[in-house]
Amino acid sequence: MEAFANGRGVRTIWSNDVGRLHHDGTSVVVTALVMEDRSLPVRRVRGVRVDLSRVRFWSVHTRDHIYLDKEATERTRAALEEIADAGDHSTAGRGRVGAREFWPLYNWPWNKYHELNAQICGDSKTSALVLFARGKRESFQFPDESPVAFAGILASAMDQVKRH
Questions:
Q1: Which terminus of the chain is less hemmed in, N or C, by CB atoms within 10 Å?
Q2: Per-residue CA distances from 109 to 80, 102, 106, 113, 130 (Å)
């Protein structure tokens, strides 16, 4: 979807910010969108854009924009719920909990794309939802945020996309 979004002549014909998380200069905004390429034949693509940003040290910005189609959004949503379930069943200090869909060493077909990865980092007292783009070093932390809540934002975005 990212290749389509960055194509010549592609424009967004509908978008809606569905949800956002903020913490200490770090934010994620999830936008449902429909894009169109008017070259012949006309093509429309529906999906989700995830905008990650962090402001540090008086306006040094780290930003990333990740586009997810229906399949990638569903895969990410399910993986977030898997992470939450694994975290709920952990009795010891957990360190980091992720999902197999995000593991970079597996030969998943989607590992070659710029997609969203997530994990929970923390111990038995505190935890943070950590979001990052596949293949990038920068991470965006959201303490005490639930992966299930973020999965709900993604599901809501796809529900809106289906109606447009």
A1: C
A2: 19, 12, 9, 8, 23
- Determine the Cα–Cα distance for residues 46 and 70; give it in Å rounded to an integer: 7
- Distance CA(71)–CA(48), nearest Å, equals 11
Q: Considering Cα of 145, then 151, then 156, then 161, what sign does the dihedral take?
A: positive
How many whole angstroms separate alpha carbon 122 and alpha carbon 90?
Answer: 12
Please say whether the beta carbons of 118 and 134 come within 8 A. Answer: no
Where does residue 3 rank: exposed (0-12), middle (13-18), buried (19+ CB within 10 A)? exposed
pTM, full prediction:
0.85
Q: What tens digit of pLDDT does each residue of 36-84 get?
A: 998 878 899 999 999 999 987 766 588 999 999 999 999 899 989 988 8
**Domains of the chain and any CATH numbers:** 2-162 (3.30.2450)
Closest by CA position to 50, among listed 69, 64, 34: 64
The position carrying tokens 């293949």 is: 135
The residues facing 43 across adjacent strands are 37
